[in-house]
Design goal:
It is a single chain. This protein is of the alpha/beta class. It has 14 helices and 13 strands. It is 44% helix and 17% strand. The strands form 3 sheets. Strands 5-2-1-6-7-8 form a 6-stranded parallel β-sheet, with helices on both faces. Strands 4-3-11-10 form a 4-stranded mixed β-sheet. It has a 3-stranded mixed β-sheet with strand order 9-12-13, covered by helices on one side. It holds the Pfam family Mannitol_dh. This is Mannitol dehydrogenase family protein.
Length: 381
């Protein structure tokens, strides 16, 4: 545990390389520009050996490296940044008392990246939101409830919660889980109102490919980055940054990401699965195959873009397709198709099936419909 006396208004649950090269990176750049923001306390969920080494690196005043590599407007770029926005790393279990103190006395923003299953609560779990628990309960929502209860008891103001998990309406979803657990655990109406009305749970969407971890902390990331946050009353941000956009609705950003970038990945993974290509083949490498390139380019041009045009998003989609293809060709990014092909049928359901349902017959989608039907077992895979 760090002994630093520096106040950290941002508390982050999750030590992922993604957040190291995303939210923490943005806060670092904002601080370098002179903004009075941050710094960050990062909280590990468990005391694994890897987490212990990473937390020690977070406590190093020298910071950790992020290497930004890729293409921008067709030109190769490489930039090395020593990120110094994270000044303290603690373990939720070993440093629970210190975590409570920081949450109550210092925090103004909560950022989380606990994987898509991080919002789950064990069946039958109840926590005592009144007692000053001397150990963290299991699951992130339960810990957040206990910490919010401690903050409420101390008479502190509400704060802004910014989940980045890949869950639809992630802010509202997390808010619902925490409030549900509070009510089932017998929380007072005052605490429920504090969580529901005084705290802001923001819905957000993140987009950046962070390809390689650096040990014990740090990462290699592409130049492209986005953190779209849906506008709502009382929302404030941990910093201002060109990659952070406050928007009226996340849906257009979600549609572009899921039905262009993610859909393109799945189209390439399906081609790879059907052609017996090498196990370690990457997105960049498969696009060097004229047949694979023609398939992806054709689906984008003949089906995806007409579908977006039919929904009034043609210009945005055309620009995003061009950006996506540049990202796919990143000469420094080794994004393996075997990783993308994990849970292939479920990904087709969301990325391809979701697009077909959204377009709703307003454009012809024969190749995508065939791919979707195959995933449903109508055609042999």
């Amino acid at each position: 545990m760090s002994t630093t006396s520096l106040s950290t208004p941002v508390i982050q649950f999750g030590t992922s390389r993604f957040l190291q090269a995303h939210a923490d990176f943005f806060i670092h750049e904002a601080r370098e520009e002179g903004q009075d923001v941050g710094p960050v306390t990062v909280v590990a969920g468990s005391g694994s050996a890897g987490n212990r080494e990473r937390l020690a690196a977070f406590n190093d005043p020298a910071g950790y490296p992020v290497i930004v590599r890729g293409l921008e407007d067709g030109d190769k770029i490489e930039r090395h940044v020593q990120v110094r926005s994270v000044t303290r790393g603690i373990d939720a279990e070993a440093d629970w008392a210190e975590l409570k103190r920081i949450f109550v006395d210092e925090a103004r923003f909560v950022i989380s990246n606990t994987t898509e299953t991080g919002f789950t609560v064990p069946d039958g779990l109840r926590v005592d939101p009144v007692a000053d628990c001397d150990a963290p309960p299991p699951s992130f929502p339960a810990r957040l409830l206990v910490l919010l209860a401690a903050r409420h008891r101390a008479g502190r103001a509400g704060l802004v919660v910014l989940p980045t998990e890949l869950v639809g309406r992630n802010g509202e979803t997390l808010r619902g889980v925490v409030l549900g657990l509070a009510r089932s655990s017998g929380a007072s109406e005052e605490l429920v109102r504090f969580i529901a009305d005084d705290c802001v749970f923001a819905d957000s969407l993140v987009d950046r490919i962070v390809s390689t971890p650096l040990e014990p902390a740090g990462a290699v990331a592409e130049p492209y980055a986005l953190w779209a946050i849906e506008r709502k009353p009382k929302l404030t941000l941990p910093c201002a940054h060109p990659a952070i956009r406050v928007v009226d609705s996340l849906e257009p950003f979600e549609r572009l990401k899921i039905h262009i970038l993610n859909l393109g990945h799945t189209v390439l993974a399906d081609w790879w699965l059907g052609h017996g290509r090498p196990e370690g083949l990457t997105v960049r490498e498969i696009l060097e195959d004229p047949e694979a390139w023609a398939r992806l380019d054709g689906i984008y041009g003949r089906e995806v873009l007409p579908g977006f045009r039919a929904k009034g998003m043609g210009d945005e989609a055309e620009l995003y397709v061009a950006t996506t293809l540049e990202r796919f060709r990143n000469p420094f990014l080794d994004h393996r198709l075997s990783d993308i092909a994990t849970n292939h049928a479920a990904k087709i359901e969301k990325r391809v099936g979701g697009f077909i349902a959204w377009v709703g017959g307003a454009a012809a989608l024969p190749e995508l419909e065939t791919l979707f039907q195959k995933s449903q077992g109508y055609v042999a895979a």
